[in-house]
Amino acid sequence: MSSRLTQRSTLWVMLLGLLACASTGCSSLSLPAFKAPSVPLPGLSDASGDPSYSGLEGQTLSASMTAESYQKIKQAKAQNAVVLQVQGDSVPVRLLPLPDGSRSVFVSELLEQTGLQSRLGSRTQAVLHRPSPDSLTGIKMEIELNDNGEGIATACDYALRPGDRIVISKAETTGAQELVNMVLRR
Questions:
Q1: Radius of gyration over alpha carbons of the chain, in Å?
Q2: What is the DSSP-derived secondary structure letter of residue 144?
Q3: Is 21 helix (H, G, I), strand (E, B) or coil?
Q4: Cross-strand partners of 165
Q5: Of 25, 75, 127, 181, which residue is least crowded by CB atoms under 10 Å?
Q6: How many Cβ atoms sit within 10 Å of the Cβ of residue 93?
Q7: What pLDDT shows up at residue 95?
Q8: Contacts of 66 (CB under 8 A, 6+ apart)
């Protein structure tokens, strides 16, 4: 009797299995295709230089983001101001107030009023970092120069908001790149 009971239970299990296969098809288990990671694995290459790499300790800060600039950003948000960070200047981090009301101030106006417009040349680069809850350093927005190397391109002349951080530094270009840029501008 015991063997007959086990045969029946085995038969029922097989019948249920066949029924399950028939209702879902032969491949009831679908596995995702293998996808290689987009970030190089540590130890296989120098991933620390990769901007998309984030280590176990979390997000890494850019060289321009210092404790002083972080405090100034918090202060700028509270005081309706922007942070101007000029690398290599005697006062590297400044807090500049925005006008009250609905008047917008653009990057080109700020650089002109601070006297930095004359210093902007082909060997200078500017970046606007806009505060974001998802990023400690903010959203990086490149500021490009006009084709003649003077002034800011209209598409990159952003309206400033409280807490914005503008970083101005020397461009990392070689003499050959400068020569090509000069020829292309003419």
A1: 29
A2: P
A3: helix
A4: 83, 129
A5: 25
A6: 20
A7: 92
A8: 93
Beta pairing, strands 124-132 & 93-97: unpaired
What strand order describes the sheet that includes 93-97? 93-97, 81-86, 165-170, 124-132, 135-143
Q: DSSP assignment, residue 155?
A: G
**C-alpha distances in Å from residue 1, one per residue of 5, 6, 7, 13:** 6, 9, 10, 18
67-185 has CATH 3.30.160 classification: no
Which of 149, 150, 153 lies closest to 184, judged by CA? 149
What CA–CA distance (Å, rounded) separates 168 from 154? Answer: 18
- Alpha carbons within 13 angstroms on the beta-carbon side of residue 123 total 7
For position 44, what pLDDT does the model report?
A: 44
Domain ranges in the chain are 67-185
The pLDDT tens digits for 118-176 are 765 656 788 999 998 888 788 999 988 776 667 788 888 999 999 999 998 877 767 77
Gap between the Cα atoms of 57 and 141, Å rounded:
25
Query: Can you tell me whether residue 55 is helix, strand or coil?
Result: strand
* Length of the chain in terms of residues written: 186
Q: How many CA atoms lie within 13 A of 52 on its CB side?
A: 5
**Structure token digits, residue 149:** 């190397």
pTM: 0.59
Partners of 58 in the β-ladder: 55
Q: Give, rounded to a whole angstrom, the gap between the first and last alpha carbons of the chain.
A: 100
